[in-house]
Amino acid sequence: MKKIHYTEPWTKSVHFTILDVERLHSEVSPFQTIDFYRSDTFGTFFTLDGLMMVNEKDEFIYHDMISHVPMAVNPNIKRVLIIGGGDGGTAREIARYSGIEKIDMVEIDERVVRLSQKYLPLTAKTLDQDNRIHLFFEDGLAFVKNADKESYDLILVDSTDPIGPGEGLFTKAFYDNCYRALSNDGILINQHESPYFNEQKHEMIRAHAKIKDLFPIAEVYQFHQPTYPSGHWLFGFASKKFHPIKDHKMAAWEALNLKTNYYNSDIHKGAFMLPTYVKDALKNAR
Amino acid sequence: MKKIHYTEPWTKSVHFTILDVERLHSEVSPFQTIDFYRSDTFGTFFTLDGLMMVNEKDEFIYHDMISHVPMAVNPNIKRVLIIGGGDGGTAREIARYSGIEKIDMVEIDERVVRLSQKYLPLTAKTLDQDNRIHLFFEDGLAFVKNADKESYDLILVDSTDPIGPGEGLFTKAFYDNCYRALSNDGILINQHESPYFNEQKHEMIRAHAKIKDLFPIAEVYQFHQPTYPSGHWLFGFASKKFHPIKDHKMAAWEALNLKTNYYNSDIHKGAFMLPTYVKDALKNAR
User: Fold this and answer.
1) What single DSSP character describes residue B215?
2) What is the pLDDT of residues A209-240, one digit of tens each?
3) How many CA atoms lie within 13 A of A28 on its CB side?
4) Which residues of B touch A (CB under 8 A)?
5) What is the pTM of this model?
6) In A28, A34, A74, B228, which residue has its Cα 20 to 30 A from A272's Cα atom?
7) A19 and B20 in contact by Cβ < 8 A?
8) Which element (helix H / strand E) includes B61?
9) ipTM of this model?
């Protein structure tokens, strides 16, 4: 297959390029342009509207950090809602917990799921192998609006950036509905962008300002995701009751004996310890 | 001035590009090719043999993490040796501590210092303003070999990658001499590469294997440096006596009231909490 160079603009003036990739598939869905590629360094990866979403080399970092942090804070989580996450990696990690009763996954774009099932079994394989997982190809914003009050213990917002189909998932209306749909010990984890380049920092601040207005506990944690702009990426941890560090159930989580390649009980704590410039930006977010 | 694109190979197949930069200066010194550039996003930056060393946007991250971590473990450090660090940023941070009596800085390439003084006063300005700083334009390996036994409390290896002039600074002979030159409560901090791409991971493992053979305490800490390959970068903390966490003198450091933009007492702890795949690679290093 012909080799091409994949270039992604991290900002207007900073580009990330993967040389010599093969394009496995390209299509324009009703929502976005979807491209699957293969590279020696990253294995199979796919992009939405030209931005890297998931690759075989480092998907474990993102999926470990979105899933195991809340599960180690509240091991009694039973009802999980995933918004986005069409590649299946987040559902895969959550499905490893035997105490989970249901995983509703709401992905606006069915094509992302179907193509991941074809090209990325590493992340997607669990989607049709676990009958606790229920797929809904709908708009996440509308789904959460219509969800019953207090019907989930955990909501994971595994979204794209706030441009295109992901835009509604960064609005106050969406976070309001998440709050309503969460049980009293509910936790919301959301894609929180990055503090480094101004483009993503702007979105980080906007998202955080809205969430901390709503939830009594609203913290942010960081991880190293080298294929996202700057490699310094964040999730938000918002909750009605649980604090991610004070309520960290380290022993309970370790007793489960889950093998993880990025997450561990140390990194659970360390991830919430933020550089001064990030703390300052979040503190002043409004 | 004409705008060009600066492209750096992070690996053979992954490139990092900064668009529309101006080349301020380029020369071939007896040791390496030195280029200074200016970009809107990163301000002034320079490269050695085509690899980004320092830029105005994020130099504070590297210089905070190399300097303040050891100073917060042993606030009685008085005699400091910096190997490399020609941009002056490491000396600048160490010079902020009034208890420091001398800072010997050994940079093999005088041109890096002179050009930094001309183009990068942000990092270099302290070099001729503080009479505790002594510049030696010599080979670091030979300098440490000839240093008196136990003549330094802290050695900071602020080197390039182990290719070209930095190569000797990753050898067992060099670490041996550092051990000898350090006082009994001495600390060695060294540039420890990165765990993500195989190219840098290989060097990380080689360096760590040598250091942990020599020093009773040999830990590794991480930080987010977006302009280095993968953005996931490491320093080694090696010591004859002090443990970076158990002996962390948080209150003493905070009483100094130093303003820092990346380092803080939380990140001091968090930086040593490593992802599982990094712990595993270091544990198995030999």
Assistant:
1) -
2) 999 999 999 999 999 999 999 999 999 999 99
3) 0
4) 7, 11-20, 39-41, 58, 61, 196-197, 222, 224, 226, 230-232, 260-264, 266-267, 269-277, 279
5) 0.97
6) B228
7) no
8) helix B59-71
9) 0.96
